[in-house]
Structures are given as structure tokens and as C-alpha cells.
Amino acid sequence: MIKRKKIFILFFIIFLVLFIYSLINIINWKKDVDDNDNLQNKIKKNITIDEHEDSKIKYNVDFNALKKINNDVVAYIKVNNTNIDYVVVKGSDNSYYLNHNFEKKVNIAGWIFADYHNKFDELDKNIIIYGHNTKDGSMFGTLINILNKDWYENKDNHQVVLVTEKGTYYYQVFSTYSIKPEDYYINTEFNNEFDFDTFIKNLKSRSIYNYGVDVSKDDKILTLSSCIGNGNKRVVLHAKLIKN
Question: Are the CB atoms for 153 and 209 separated by under 8 Å?
Fold first, then answer.
């Protein structure tokens, strides 16, 4: 009887510790999400939108003001029918902004960031942008929408806007899919035109939907990536730069 009582007490203590640990994590997560929401509202004051008669939307981003908050700012990105409407930063590696926010404070939700190999003075052949798949739908929490029929069959969603200090760029979506973690699609440099041509053909063949977009070795592309599930898969979007 005494032995059973000791076992019960032990299990109760373990349960209590786990409960307290989970509660602390939930509280910290909620605080981090709220902090990022407040940050986003602060940041959005530096982004204005002009709508012209030809229905062309112009995004005006005050990079000077944003860089006073964080000098790692490189771009702004917008994806229709998702919550992706963020200023993009770039660190010295691909780890820092996994757990630091726009103000460089430790934050479980991190921030939207570009691959540290990428160059933005002249856009690379493959610009890659990452973000966490958060439960509240912030960051890249709604990137998973691209796997839904309602999203990929709506042509209004097929254009992604990327704004840098050099100008505004429009990308046409040509591939969306989910895949197990790998390094292949996050390649930023290519040995020659043949390698890049093979690369984009592989990306197109993975798509769950035929966007009917031709992509060639002469194009430049944009890649968005986030984890889904328990981190055992990735959701990926590829789009090609539309030449003016």
C-alpha cells in the first residue's frame, strides 16, 4: 500500500512538472506572438500602398526608417490570400532569425528572413525566403494555403510582390508543393546554365498544380519555404521574375 502511494505521488509530481512546463511555454509563446504583432503594426506604418487606375498596386517602403530599427532589412514581401505581408531581414547565417524577431530580441516565432547567401543589389538566380509555420497564422503560418485548390486555382494569387531598395519586382508562381526536408531547392548558386535549367525543370515537375508558366535558364526565381507538420515536411513556393 505504501509502495503504491509512493508511485502515485511520483506520477503526480511528474504530471505537475510537465503541466507547469507546458503552461510556461504557452505563456512565453503568447507573449512572443503578441510582441511580434505589435512589431508588425509598428513596421506597417513605414509601408504605404498606391492604387493606380490601371489596377497596378505600388508598394512604397521606407527602408531608411526600417533600417534605423534593424539594419538587416533587405526587402518586403507580399503573397495574396495569405498573411504574408512582411519586411524581410537577412542575417549572417540561417539560424539567427529562427528565434529572434525584427528588433533582434529572442522570440520563439522568429522573423521572415532571406538566405544569408543571397545578394539583393542584383537579384540572385534563386532568392530564398524562410519563415516559421506558426499556429496563429503569423510569419509563414499561412504559406500552407498554397497547397489548397481554392488558392492555386485563383489566378489573383499567382503573383508575388518583392520590394527592395532597388525597386519593386513581380514574380509569377510556377510551382507549389510539399516535400521532406532537403537542401536541393535551397540552392543559391549554380555552376552553369545547364545546371540551372535542370534545377528549374525539377522544381516544375514537383508542382501539385500546372500553372502553365514557362521558365528558362535565363530567368531568375524566388523561393519561399516553411516547415509543416512536426517539422518533418516543407511547404514550398517557386515563382519566376516577370521581366518588364
Answer: yes
Q: 121 to each of 12, 61, 74, 167, 222, how far by Cα in Å?
A: 59, 16, 9, 10, 15
Supply the pTM of this predicted model: 0.87
Please give the pLDDT value at position 221. Answer: 97
Confidence category of residue 229, pLDDT binned at 50, 70, 90: confident
Output the nine-digit C-alpha cell for 231: 517539422
What kind of architecture, by CATH, is found in domain 44-241?
A: Beta Barrel (2.40)
Per-residue pLDDT of 189-199, as tens digits, reads 999 999 999 99
β 126-130/113-114 pair status: antiparallel
Q: Is 121 or 14 the better-scoring residue by pLDDT?
A: 121
Using an 8 Å Cβ cutoff, are 20 and 27 in contact?
Answer: no
Task: Kindly tell me the burial class for residue 128, based on how many C-beta atoms sit within 10 Å of its own C-beta (0-12, 13-18, 19 or more).
Answer: buried
Which 3 state secondary structure label does DSSP give 184? helix
Q: Give the C-alpha separation, 156 to 159, whole Å.
A: 7
Identify any residues that bridge with 221 across adjacent strands, giving them in sequence order.
Answer: 126, 240
Cell 507580399 belongs to: 78
Bridge-based pairing of strands 167-179 and 221-228 is unpaired
Question: Among all chains, which residue has been given the C-alpha cell 504530471?
Answer: 15
The answer to which of 15-29, 73-87, 122-136, 172-186 has the lowest mean pLDDT is 15-29
Cβ atoms of 36 and 97 closer than 8 Å: no
